[in-house]
Amino acid sequence: MKVGFIGVGNMGGPMCRNIIKNTNHEVIVFDLNPDAVKVCTDLGASAGNSVADVAARCDVVLTSLPMPTHVEAVALGAGGIAENARPGTVYIDLSTNSPTMARRVHAALAAKGIPMLESPVSGGVTRAAEGTIVIMVGGDEAVCDAQRPLLNSFSSEVVHTGEVGMGSVAKLINNMLAFCNMAAAAEALMMGAKSGIDLKKLDQVITNASGFSFSYRSLAGKSFAGDFKPGFSLDLAHKDLRLALELADELGVPGMIAPQVMSLFRMARGMGMGSDDMSTMIRVYEKALDTEVRA
Ligand code: NAD
Hints:
54% of the residues lie in helices and 12% in strands. The chain is built from 14 helices and nine strands. It is globular and about 65 Å long. The mean pLDDT is 98. Bound molecules: nicotinamide-adenine-dinucleotide (NAD).
């Protein structure tokens, strides 16, 4: 089978490389960044010339792109997947989008005979490299089942969450929860730093106690090392939280916590930290209080 992969950045890159390593499929890669393409072609993929080229040649096309506007342009825009893929080609979008946009892209592609699975992923760059991410799939269940061998080649858990839109719903809810956990972790570690406690001892306690979370581990690791290279950029986290807050609004669910986290994100972006890892949010506290959280 010919598998196309468009967008091989921080997440798409390792996911694509696991497909190359773990399957016998012919993988054709396209990205606007030639360096990102090279890391995949060095492993045995071939380079496509354009989105249109990949779409026309492949049986399955995957995308992992930053913003909903990029996904809509690549899927439905001039030179995109809808224009160039053969009917029957399966389109799998691994990006984080709004449910509304996923439904719109799905409907436009369905009219051309191109089934779509909206398949956002969670786990971050480390787990993407390990092939242990979770994939949330919204779309036709039979199409999802047919693609499970491919999806399993770069993940450890594939959950069919319902019709198109429900993958994004699951992803946005999960990320909102993770971001709230991380913001709480930033506040907690700053309290630790100001208290004078040995941060390594505090970390040992939290790691074995009830305050622990995946987000805590990620933030503490980055902060203690003073290394805020992404990872998962604050700009992308801001996009996800904006989409989650829009969803909460559509559902009429009051926001008591997540909107405060959004304010923290806005402060961090206003301070020029948007392209850093999202854990950079702790530096808003660090700068305000002139205290670093390093250990
Ligand atoms: P990234 O910016 O590192 O990678 C995106 C890649 O897409 C870049 O290499 C860019 O050159 C390429 N690109 C952009 N427009 C393109 C186009 N028109 N044609 C071809 N290539 C194009 O972003 P990322 O962190 O890999 O995130 C990708 C998606 O995955 C986002 O939707 C993000 O929200 C989601 N996500 C990221 C993480 C994470 O930890 N980084 C985790 C889960 C989900």
